[in-house]
Write a structure and sequence with these properties.
This protein is 44% helix and 16% strand. With 133 residues, it is an alpha/beta fold.
Length: 133
């Protein structure tokens, strides 16, 4: 005899953000929007998680410490997890930086500029990654 079918747990969004206050703010916004979240404080840690876990999508700061930035994460996704490369949203406070602008043009990845309104951010996440289950 089996019990009722348990729905599969929804896949989490990987959040890559090095500023603790911003990470908590974005995590809270995503969780209130119905998403599960796994956080990484650097691009390098994000890549380690991507190698071993499945995710619904990725939200990444453009600039992270440790030698792996948002552009590097996106390049890795394009090579190894192309379905996630299309479900990536960048967040940045640095849209004046030419390198950031070049990355956004090259990848076509949506970007939300900090500081942002929660509704605006969640709308971009829903359009790019999909609605929370």
């Amino acid at each position: 005899m089996t019990g009722p079918a348990v729905p599969p747990k929804p896949l989490p969004i990987l959040l890559i953000e090095d500023e603790p206050a911003v990470m908590e703010f974005v995590r809270a916004a995503l969780e209130r929007g119905g998403y599960a979240v796994v956080s990484a404080p650097s691009g390098a840690e994000g890549l380690r998680l991507l190698e071993s876990q499945n995710f619904l999508g990725v939200v990444s700061d453009m600039r992270t410490p440790g030698g792996v930035d948002g552009a590097d994460v996106h390049a890795w996704l394009t090579r190894h997890r192309p379905e996630l490369a299309r479900r990536t949203v960048f967040i940045t406070g640095d849209l004046a930086n030419e390198e950031t602008v070049a990355t956004l043009r090259r990848t076509g990845t949506p970007c939300v500029e900090k500081p942002f309104r929660v509704q605006q951010f969640i709308a971009v996440v829903q359009q790019t990654i999909g609605k929370a289950l």
